[in-house]
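I hope you will forgive my troubling you with a question about protein structure. The matter concerns a single protein, recorded as an amino acid sequence and a row of backbone structure tokens. Please examine both parts with care and let me know of anything in them that strikes you as inconsistent. Thank you for your consideration; the sequence and its tokens are set out here:
***
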Amino acid sequence: MGILAMIAVAALFSAMDATAKLMTERYDPLFVVWARYVGQAVGTVLVFAPRLRRVAHTRRLGLQTLRSVFLFAATVLFFTGYSLMPLAEATAIAQVAPLMIVALAALVLGEPVSRLRWAAAGIGFCGALIIAQPGSAALGWAAVFPLG
């Protein structure tokens, strides 16, 4: 079941990204983000309606709100990137984020990062560069949106 769930999630996220790309060609990215979150909210309420109060309860409302603000900002940046550059390049740039987290964990948090992890991050970065094709629009000013 876990493998099937991962395949379904990968397909659904890919479909959402492709739909967002198509929609941002025609509509403002903020409107597309609004439509995504309204649809997501309606779906969530329908699925969890019988136990919504228990599911939505939190002891850390401030942290949950901050997390929501960051997620909203990331979605706006990513969808804006879709409106400015090709889908594959925007996605490739976004895939660099985990690699940056490895570097920031070492530099900012002082976390020990093994040679194997640095090698994996370097290989992943090279893969993202191959997809983004240096010299293309992926390395222009619009790249800051999916990177954000």
Q: What stands out?
A: The mean pLDDT is 87. The longest helix spans residues 2-26. The chain is about 80% helix and 0% strand.
